[in-house]
Protein 1
Amino acid sequence: MSQSEFEIIRRYFAESGLYFPRSGVELGIGDDGAVLQVPTDSLLTMSMDILVEGVHFPLFADPAQVAHRALAVNLSDLAAMAADPFCFTLGLVLPYANESWLAGFSEGLLELAEEFKCPLVGGDITRGPLSIAIQVHGLCKQERVLRRDGAKVGDLIYVTGTLGDGAIALASLGLDSHLGSSFVVDGEKQTDACKQHFHSAYYRPKPRIEFSNNCADFMSSGIDVSDGLVGDLGHVIKASGVGAVLNTKAFPYSNPAACCVSESNRQLAALFGGDDYELCVSVPALNRREFEAAAESVSTQITCIGEIVTGSAIRCLDSQEEEIDLSSGAYMHFRGAN
Ligand code: ADP
Ligand code: MG
């Protein structure tokens, strides 16, 4: 590297504003390890995501956008635990020390780090093919940890925001969505505003931290939708030992998705697409009102899309209340790599 590793750390990480004071962070960048004081009434949760160029983000993508996405998807995992962001660490593999890339990357991190009061407290840098590992640390209250194994028969299934935008965004950006060649965005209907919406959906997913912290008391389980509803809700029902029924008629879609993508492709994106980073949660029926009021109080759109039932599978009903065979060949071939 043309600059010393130490100089990179100082300029783009330690003194870029990313390492800012936060209560509980006793020591951050600069020593052999960070030192954290976890409040006595809290538990520490940790989550890591690795993003590899050309696999998890496009070659030559804007470094600020990549940074934003990398931290956002990690914070989404904290939201899915109903945790409050505490701090994060960064493992960076760089082909060479590219100053403008590092400056953009550092800036992209800063925006979200400040918004969620989540300072960078350490990491490592080494040379190799561009990849980014972020580990976020969050604080949660013991009785409010949002686990995957808490769903009970009779609970209602809700999602935040809209579904399918992540996969539709990939198609809009000309990237492989894994949903097959007939999964297309109608180019003629795609206005600049639609393109902008999909670009933000991909690069700037909104971690649902405020929602999950505010609503944690009323939810029995939760997961963030990163691989499509069928896959992610599948983890919840497996862990909880229950089944689920979904009503596709109720699925919430964004206006751009409704405008630029056919109904069947929207449904495909919601069920099997990835990258939505919305939360899918179960709510005991008795908590319904309080849950909806709590979501409203933080201006988060929520939609009831189904119910937890006995069994061990997800059944999915279409708008005519007919069952969609999720395991049929028609859907199977969409379920490739994610
Ligand atoms: P060591 O040799 O003890 O492993 P390093 O020289 O790798 O330490 O790192 C020095 C300091 O800089 C440490 O506090 C480390 O956490 C921090 N650091 C290294 N890389 C990064 C990075 N990518 N982001 C933030 N901090 C980093
Ligand atoms: Mg050391």
Protein 2
Amino acid sequence: MLADLHSHTYFSDGYLSPDALIARAASNLVNILAITDHDTTEAFEHLENMPSTSTLTILQGVEISCMWDQREIHVVGLGIDRHELVLRTLLNDQQALRLRRAQAMDMSLQRAGVCGLMNYLGTLPCKAIGRNHVAQFLIDRGIARSKDHAFKNFLGDRGKFGAKAQWCSVETAVNAILSAGGIAILAHPNRYNVSNQKLRRLVEEFAVVGGEGLEVSYSNLDPDRVAHMAALCMDNDLWASTGSDFHSPINHWMDLGKFRLLPTLCATRAVWMHPRWPELARVGN
Ligand code: AMP
Ligand code: MN
Ligand code: MN
Ligand code: MN
């Protein structure tokens, strides 16, 4: 079973349309694809019917930015009903925070003599403005050499053009996902720059508020780290998820379906074996 349960379209900071994303997933032999844009479910408004075939099932998802211990944590919701009111309201609030953060970045850019960020953002299809978009603007203007350069030098917490947003709490995100009938998964746990001890505390607290799953295997995660995530997952009785976090075809190390399979340690705890999985996969338009 090749389940890519974390991917982005151009309605957040991905580069592909929903249809192009699905076509790429099919050609990469993915069996289950969850589209999980940052703080928006807009992609599903642009799919006529949920275009599941005998070999590829599409799952509605979202990736919500949260605050935990004063840092940014990402929680993925799988199998959500995007029309559900608590979730809708939260995503609208998060999108408003993203707009305000972009306006704050625009102000500091203007102070440095760089105009046009908001105009540039207005030309994009995205509903959830991200730092990736600002990074692209900095590259287009010749201010940054690459995405990495833009994040490291300009868009980080202490970056010259960086701005923080006060995202919702992990509990609020998990509650909204549960209200919408979905399963909450803690995304890419090794990307938060915290000690193993702190990561353990994060996972425990995530489970206490109703989080049910952990991403165990994803792009660029070496076998030792996958094994570590698998142990963390089993220790907390969570379901194990897999996903590429695909954004763009240009990024070769992050492609749809390209990650290590779940280790045998959590083979019986794969999230697609969750008792509610069949109903989640049926949530359509
Ligand atoms: P945001 O949602 O606006 O806070 O931005 C977070 C997103 O920026 C992540 O989902 C990644 O897509 C992207 N990102 C974060 N750090 C980097 C980096 N160093 N290089 C490229 N993209 C990054
Ligand atoms: Mn992103
Ligand atoms: Mn993320
Ligand atoms: Mn992501």
